[in-house]
Design brief:
Two copies of one chain form a homodimer.
Chain A (H helix, E strand, L loop, with lengths): L5 E10 L19 E9 L7 E7 L4 H9 L2 H4 L8 H9 L12 H22 L3 H6 L3 H6 L12 H10 L4 H11 L1 E9 L5 H13 L4 E5 L4 H15 L4 E5 L6 H11 L4 E5 L7 H11 L3 E4 L6 H9 L5 E2 L8 H15 L12 H16 L8 E3 L13 E2 L2 E2 L13 H6 L8
Parallel strand pairs in A: 4-5, 4-10, 5-6, 6-7, 7-8, 8-9
Antiparallel strand pairs in A: 1-2, 2-3, 4-12, 11-12
Chain lengths: ~425, ~425
């Protein structure tokens, strides 16, 4: 196998017409068409393994995101199939010319994330392991090599990261075994889309509890009276012991967020998610101070580890919602997991969209085995759509993710999907 | 003229081989190829005016930036040539699907900025006025209509912005007249590129002082001993009364920045620019506290008004360096000027690159006439390259920008440049 090289990058502009059903509708995203700017890394290895990765978007602009991935082709062709992914990350993210397009944010950063994730999918397949296990078997030194500590050293140094990982080295095997038998806690967002009727909301809440979920999530932020009514319905349907998170999808300015959340307090919301702009670190901190003991959760639109660092420093979040396809892939998410561990903040990944559940389960499971060492107060989002397009879709049973065992990052879409849902510019 | 519509969007991937001379070399950008993702808005008006705009990049990836501009075409064709630019801004920036690609940052946000700036160029040409004057003749109500206060209201409300503009209404005419006779202060970065020899540095410093500049800027951050020597040479060549700014181009982590700048303090640097990641608001604030009375300046990579808001709230900068082509165009820069006025922080725009001097002069001059009402402690960057490619290039005389009087935003490149420097993907 050694000596195998990357020979081709295939890219696909994949779009699903989700706006037709209002699945995924929220206060900021009334009609998303869940999409993926998707790539496949091909090698000349006779093993035939390919690396799959993607950026998630919600429709228009997916062509630009796909073009950004394709623009990285000259950086990738001829690389070893078992490239040093710490080095590759640094090379792509710190490329002095590409960097200008962010830096470390937006379309180009997400494109790098898709490529890095595809390399990890390839690496895990070549190792014959699910990604979480490949990562969890690495030494603390190998893990730290994957992380770029630039701009982080005032919050966490490489030595501190090593100390955290070494402290967790004991018990890795037991935790991995527990994952296989017990899975990882999930919560469901499926009941709470803004476009659903009250009856549908009530029915889906009851079903969620029957299915074993201990937390659900409701979209809020369009109309306060509606939110009060919907939260009351959900609380009645779920009973007092189920955590109900609310998600404003960045709808509010800081003062409005505080007022609105206080108005929802009687129905005991557990966390409020994305109360304002994801760029507003100080705003999140002001909101968190004002609404305690209700918690703040954010992360799906946080562009990079540097903004997460500050959200932790400023106490702008109580739950860190990393996203598998927003930052520059697995490596940057390891940096984020280490930051969260340093600050003692639980990571509860953002998922849903296209394939995000498939990806983040590996990150949370690696976190459990090797970084935080805990599933306490941690939970992965689950949304029950579009999984049928994946070769190794997630399974959620009794309110828990079933731990994946197939080799890879669970990122590969089915061949038929890549054909059927390919978007052509003439589609408009 | 009324009833004219946008009929076509032409896009151009323009690249200049600046890496051959090391002009523009700094600690993070050793070999930039200054580039523009450029567009021309055509209308069916017999007046023949066209709107020109661009995003600035430094080479690789300029194709992706150009593709992002082209992707906006369906949003633009058929719009009135005199579109309501407040409404257009909101529509493009808050498009629920495109927004996912940022939000409000990176390639897609810069693409929207290029388009918005092209509409302003067109509007100014149709009005027969230089852009600064078109803006400065608007009423406070018209100006405020251009600004989106979303996510700003905890720092500045629409009412506060109106009050600032109304307070400055008196004296607008006198300030506009003074601009025409006296121009606007400039500083020069041309002596201080990292790739230049000590002799060239010394000679260029002396020339700058002889040319009437009262401030120069040196790139730093690659090697402390070199920086000490180069700053000493510059200080000797310029004498004690010239302000010498230093620019680290994001090279340092927070603790290193503080240590490094303190080591340069004996040669009296005026401000340190981009000491660390542009995303690190709290880091900038920590640096500013530690190095006072040396000032902190930043902005050229700040993605939007929300991050500027926090840099002001946290006192992370003493000089705000807006960039004409990083945020979403003129409208967002008006929001930023208003924020700076509210916090009493001088705006000293970033320029250089391709055409940035041409654009920012209009913003600073509008700021002087209608927003801050002052040129005190304010200065525009000047770099003496690539102006020959513009139809209305800037003129700097006796260390001051000569106020532009030609209609438009000074954003149009010469037709020959669009042909000669067009990049084709086969160029590699």
């Amino acid at each position: 196998m050694s000596g195998a090289r990357i020979t081709a990058i295939e890219t696909y502009d994949i779009r699903f017409p989700t706006s037709l059903q209002l699945d995924g509708s929220d206060a900021m995203n009334p009609d998303p068409d869940y999409s993926a700017a998707y790539l496949v890394l091909r090698t000349d290895d006779p093993d035939g393994h390919a690396g799959h990765g993607f950026a998630f978007t919600i429709g228009r602009g997916n062509d630009v995101q796909t073009a950004a991935i394709a623009a990285l082709t000259p950086y990738l062709i001829g690389r070893p199939a078992d490239a040093d992914l710490g080095e590759l990350w640094r090379e792509l993210v710190h490329d002095s010319q590409l960097r200008w397009l962010g830096p470390e944010k937006g379309v180009m950063h997400m494109a790098i994330g898709a490529v890095i994730n595809a390399f990890w999918d390839l690496a895990a397949k070549r190792a014959g392991l699910p990604l979480w296990q490949l990562l969890a078997r690495m030494s603390p030194e190998e893990i730290v090599h994957l992380v770029d500590f630039r701009y982080l050293s005032d919050a966490i140094t490489e030595a501190e990261a090593l100390a955290i990982l070494r402290e967790r080295s004991d018990g890795r095997r037991e935790r991995a075994a527990k994952l296989i038998t017990a899975g990882y806690p999930a919560y469901t967002t499926s009941p709470g889309w803004l476009g659903y009727s009250d009856d549908k909301l009530r029915r889906l809440c009851k079903e969620a509890v029957q299915q074993g979920f201990r937390q659900i999530k409701l979209k809020v932020g369009a109309d306060l009276d509606d939110d009060r009514r919907r939260l009351r319905i959900a609380r009645e349907a779920c009973g007092p012991d189920i955590r109900i998170a609310v998600d404003a999808n960045q709808r509010w300015d800081v003062p409005v967020a505080i007022e609105w959340i206080r108005a929802l307090a009687p129905w005991d919301p557990w966390w409020v998610e994305e109360p304002t702009s994801p760029d507003d670190i100080l705003g999140h901190a002001a909101i968190a101070r004002a609404i305690a003991p209700i918690k703040v959760a954010t992360g799906e639109h946080v562009p990079n580890r540097i903004v997460f660092k500050q959200l932790l420093q400023a106490r702008g979040l109580d739950y860190l919602q990393l996203d598998a396809a927003r930052v520059a892939g697995v490596n940057e998410n390891i940096a984020i997991l280490l930051l969260a561990a340093k600050f003692g903040v639980p990571v509860c990944p953002h998922a849903g969209g296209v394939g995000l559940c498939e990806l983040v389960q590996h990150l949370s499971m690696f976190d459990y085995v090797a970084v935080s060492g805990s599933m306490e107060d941690r939970i992965i989002e689950y949304v029950d759509h579009l999984h049928e397009h994946f070769v190794d879709p997630v399974t959620v049973r009794d309110g828990r993710y079933v731990t994946p065992t197939a080799p890879g990052f669970s990122s590969a879409m089915r061949a038929g999907t890549l054909t059927t849902f390919a978007h052509h510019s003439s589609d408009g």
